[in-house]
Amino acid sequence: MRTSDSHEVSQLNELKIDINALCQGAHYALSGSCVMVEQMPIFGGYAGGLEETAIVDVATTLNSFVMMQGSWHLDGPVHVRWGITTAREALAVAGHAARAIEENTHLILGNQYYTLAGPCTVMCLLETAAQAITDTISGREILSGVASRKGVYTDQFTAMEARMMGEAAHAVAGMDLHEVNVILDKLVGMYEKDYKTAPAGKTFSECYDVVKLVPTDEYIEVYNEAVKILTELGLTYWNK
Questions:
Q1: What pLDDT does 216 receive?
Q2: In contact, 230 and 171? CB cutoff 8 Å
């Protein structure tokens, strides 16, 4: 790896760290490498509720730069019940924490994406869009995703989810915060009722041409359906 590549070291939950991470972080710092410090506070876990988890999120973010000499911090508040970062509560934690830090520092912040639904489903794309909207409007500089189906199933990641992440971010860039909150509330409400029946979606080889590396016509139709929903909610990016 080049020193300019991000070298990851992870903190533990919550507000803890072990000797291995300390040694790893020291090595990266002394070698002059780009250090990415990762931490995923758990809503409903040791920290408690929304407010408490947001405070822990801010603390772990600041700790990434103070103790670990991080170049940037990779966040990822996750819901203890669903194991995703796209739940309403997880988005609230991520949004409030990032907004507070961005308003008072020049630190570089990222967020990682774990959806409940799998690729080639409208739900997965709407989940992705909701988090990209939250991250963008709260000032995060880096979006890292998408790990579909909670990132625990093999071969269920494609570039189409990342495309939605990028386009949704562009769609809200520069918009009024309160206007975006209204859109976001409606958007999350569209998929959170389906958590218990979230579609598994398809594997990469089922929704992509593995030779040409392009999405199938089916996935393009699914993507366009998600775009239609987002456009009807008030995002004008795809009308240009």
A1: 97
A2: yes
